[in-house]
Every structure is written in structure tokens, then in C-alpha cells.
Amino acid sequence: MKISILDQAPISSGYSPKEALEASVQLAQSAEELGFTRYWIAEHHHLSAFASSAPEIMLSYIGAKTKRIRIGAGAILLPYYKPYKIAELFNMLATLFPGRVDLGIGRAPGGSAEASMALSDNFLEGVRRMPEKVIELLQFLNNDFTEDHMFAKISASPLPEIRPEPWLLGTSIKSALMAAESGTAYAFGQFMSEKDGENIIKQYKKSFIARGALQKPKVILTVSAICAETTQKAEELALSSMLWKIKAENNEGNEGIPSIEEAKNYFRKLDVEPFDNRNRDIIGNPTEVAEQLMDMKNRYQADEIMIVTLVHQYEDRLRSYELISKDLIK
Question: Can you tell me whether residue 272 is helix, strand or coil?
Fold first, then answer.
């Protein structure tokens, strides 16, 4: 079974952004040793709990610190940028790390309204133009503009021997159909969507048009999972992410991912059961987590599972991935 990692470069309370990014490097190196297929890092802006605002910089560093694992962005937020520059960046990475680079593309803001304004004069216009931006980006990656196109005489150099693999990331039928019509692979973010993911993926596969190197649809299902030696331990670890999500929804998440003790005190004072709102997270011991991941892969008909794990201690995050790999990576 193909298992991969989505890293948000979380900053835990009491830790610095530098320590968070160093933990990401260690995670990628360990993932390679454990046999994970890909390591992707997300793009966020002005969010105190996440350290990665420039995935392309982290990927160049992580690529140099690893040898085999595929590395990629999950995702570059294309509405903010010109396709030509993104193609140049990822062609550069693909030249440095042949056959290892993925370019995940998304259209979320990735931060506050103020951050969006600082990055772009009109983010919503970038979202509206997303379909044409995707087409233009693919043309730069494939270096296949028609002779009469204004960009026919330029290339997104350096042109690598093996092109970056483009992926469209999303949580809706709109993103799925865009991926299908563009002929790209599709990553569905189940961990942040309440929509009918099974049907969305079916529609992607049904509508897929082979336009380039990818001749048939390819799907990653991205889920949130926390694994520990016991179910009780896993549920204890999950308290940190549950509290952070609550604070983030209330615009209070300014101190990073809280500790387990902080979370316990919070839920104790409110006298509430935190797992009433567990929703889409997979939490449990190795057997429970492996069974649920296999079930999701089969139900969603995904080619690959990508896991995001949000806990306070970096050692616990790494241990979660280690336990999952033992049962699912052969």
C-alpha cells in the first residue's frame, strides 16, 4: 500500500519556527527510511501554528537532505502567483532532484484576509482565473505552447529531463472536475472536507481526459491520523489538535499547537467530552488505524493514502508514522 505524508510544519507551543522546520527535515528523512512514497509540505501565511510559508525553499533543503523519497508542495496556492514563475521554481527543483518532484496546486487563501491582500491585490480574481492559470502552468511545464502563442518563444528554464508531476489539490467537485479536464492527478483533502469525497473522486475518474504524460486518473486521499501504542494514548495525543482547531475557529489560535496538559485543563474546565467532535480524524492503536486506512482506501478507490498528523510533541508525530508504516508498508 502506498502511504505518503503531508507536513504542515506545525509549531508547537514552547517551540520556535526554526525547531518546527528542523523537525520537518527529520520527518522527511525518517519517512524515506520507513518507505513512505512522498513527502509534501503545505503553504500557509501568517498562521502562528505553521512555519512553512515558502514550500519551494523547504523542498530544496529537504531534497538535499534525502535521496529517494518524492518531494512536493501540498500545495502551491496558484491564485497568488504567475504560472511562469511557479514552473521555473519546480523545473529547477526537478533539475536538482530528477524523478522526485511533485507540484501540488491549490486555490485556498492559506491564511487571513490581510495576508491575502499582502500577497495579491486581488486574490478573488486569481481564484476566478484559476482554470486558465492551471492550463498555462501545464503548458510551461510541458513546454508545448503553440507557435502563435505569445509565450511560444520562452521556456521555464532550466528544463529538466524528468518534469515535475502536477497534482491538483481540492475538497470539492469543482476542483475534481478541473483536475479531470486538465488531465492531472488529483489529491482530495478528506481531512478538511465535509463533502461526499467518494462521489467527488468517482466524478473525477469518470470525467478524466488524458492530455499529457498521465494516461489514466490517479488519486491521493489525504486524511488526518494519529497512532500510538494504545488507543488511550492516541486519544490523549489528539487532544492537542482538537483544542487547536477549536481555538483557530474562534480566532484564538495564536500560541501554536497546545500541549496535552493545556488541552486536558481546557476540556476539564468546560466539562465537555472532546471526542464528541472527532469527525474525520482517525485515532487509535496500530491495528485500528491500519484497518480504517485500508477501509478508506478501498471505499474511496484511492491509489494512495496521504497522512497529516498534528500533535504537540514532534517525537510523538514521528512515532505515529513509524507505527502506521509497520502494518501498511511492505
Answer: coil
